[in-house]
Design goal:
By secondary structure, the chain is α/β, with parallel strands linked by helices. The protein has a single domain, classed as Phosphoglycerate mutase-like (Rossmann fold), CATH 3.40.50. The protein is about 35% helix and about 15% strand. It is built from 6 helices and 6 strands, in the order βααβαβααβαββ. A hairpin with a 2-residue loop joins strand 5 and strand 6. Helix 2 crosses helix 3, helix 4 packs parallel to helix 6 and helix 5 crosses helix 6.
């Protein structure tokens, strides 16, 4: 029997509120809202038959995973391949010039320009390969939860899906938005749902 992979973006974090580029340094705690989002996500995921939980090493992802794991009663496992895009020299900056440069490279990643690289950071090909490797670590018969980041998921997941044509356009992921992937064959998936947010209804 083939399991599903639930990919969840972390809850709102301090670096989100600060508008700080953060793809290298692990620090950045959840806000109160982020913790509530994670709690809601855990409640929504509780009956999905999840058997393993992997998370990015960034604090905001680890804290999200820990809140969800308490609800699911599952152990946590760190998966380095789920970390956010490495923006290199732009990391830690909040200024408009840095964000303009960041967004220009991010747009190229979303167009699958494999050589697009952040200055001093990683290329789209490097990000795509390590993200694919992280997903492939999930055994085909497991139903897994992966707690990761919006940028890396939006720019990489569609290109691993056989129904990628249906995932074109201005894709986004809310904090604790959920993507549902079904394994298709080695390193390829069917996207069953994108950015599910039912669990956030009524949450400001």
């Amino acid at each position: 029997m083939v399991g599903l992979i639930y990919v969840v973006r972390h809850g709102q974090s301090v670096v989100n509120v600060e508008r700080r580029i953060s793809g290298r340094r692990l620090v950045g705690d959840l806000t109160d809202l982020g913790r509530e989002q994670a709690t809601r996500a855990g409640d929504w995921l509780a009956d999905k038959g999840i058997t393993c939980l992997l998370h990015s090493p960034f604090h905001r992802a680890e804290q999200t995973a820990r809140i969800i794991s308490d609800r699911l009663n599952l152990p946590l496992e760190v998966e380095d391949g789920l970390r956010e895009m490495d923006a290199g020299d732009l990391d830690g900056r909040t200024d408009g010039e840095a964000w303009e440069y960041f967004e220009s490279i991010y747009a190229r990643w979303k167009r699958a320009e494999l050589d697009a690289r952040y200055p001093g950071g990683e290329s789209h090909l490097e990000g795509l390969n390590r993200y694919r490797a992280a997903l492939m670590r999930v055994p085909m018969d497991e139903t897994a939860l992966l707690v990761t980041h919006g940028g890396i998921t939006v720019s990489c997941a569609p290109y691993l899906c056989v129904n990628a044509a249906a995932l074109q356009g201005d894709l986004r992921m809310a904090n604790t938005g959920i993507v549902v992937l079904e394994p298709y064959d080695t390193g390829r998936y069917i996207c069953r749902s994108w950015n599910l947010t039912d669990h956030l209804d009524g949450l400001i």
